[in-house]
Inverse folding.
């Protein structure tokens, strides 16, 4: 499977999701949310499919308002305390290195402290622009994180390529007017509505030039 129309486009900037796209934090995330779920008396069925959304939004969707403050504080505490076995996903370091002199950013649903903790745990070298849920009025699936990342880069959102692993993140990217490249790291391929889908970032290469950034499948 190729990249379709993405192969013919020249992008002004590349905007990366973090968890599930650049780093694998799934075991840590699962441990934290499983503990939280049991503590607040929820079942896996009630948890539903909230991957890619800020934790505070997940809490608000699941619990009564009078429990929000306590529950948000607790999941933040659990996630910050568990950054074990977080690693960089295949191709992620190479992608960021290739784009070091070009416009690129991370737009994540994490808070600032959690994003910094996970980046440090994975020993990832992030781009200079990092947008977290603390920087926007609304998190994914609203377009705000990607719009803010584009704004900070001085880029037109419609000329940005978003790289995501989660349906909610892809929804946010489309709402921002961005083109989308999905990676099959946390979600089944058939559930990823994107302009192109690859296994992970090791399957593609980003090629900056004077006119912008191109993306190609690796030979």
């Amino acid at each position: 499977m190729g990249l379709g129309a993405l192969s013919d486009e020249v992008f002004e900037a590349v905007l990366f999701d973090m968890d599930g796209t650049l780093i694998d934090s799934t075991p840590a995330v699962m441990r934290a949310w499983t503990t939280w779920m049991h503590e607040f008396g929820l079942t896996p069925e009630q948890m539903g499919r909230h991957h890619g959304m800020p934790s505070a939004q997940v809490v608000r969707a699941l619990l009564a308002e009078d429990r929000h403050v306590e529950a948000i504080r607790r999941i933040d505490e659990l996630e910050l305390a568990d950054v074990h076995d977080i690693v960089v996903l295949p191709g992620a370091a190479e992608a960021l290195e290739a784009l070091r002199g070009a416009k690129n950013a991370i737009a994540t649903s994490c808070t600032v402290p959690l994003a910094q903790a996970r980046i440090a745990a994975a020993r990832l070298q992030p781009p200079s622009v990092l947008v977290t849920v603390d920087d926007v009025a609304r998190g994914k699936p609203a377009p705000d994180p990607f719009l803010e990342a584009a704004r900070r880069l001085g880029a037109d959102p419609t000329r940005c390529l978003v790289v995501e692993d989660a349906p909610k993140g892809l929804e946010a990217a489309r709402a921002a007017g961005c083109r989308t490249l999905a990676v099959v790291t946390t979600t089944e391929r058939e559930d990823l509505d994107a302009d192109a889908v690859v296994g992970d970032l090791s399957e593609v290469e980003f090629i900056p030039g004077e006119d912008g950034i191109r993306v190609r499948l690796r030979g």
Observations:
- The chain is about 35% helix and 20% strand.
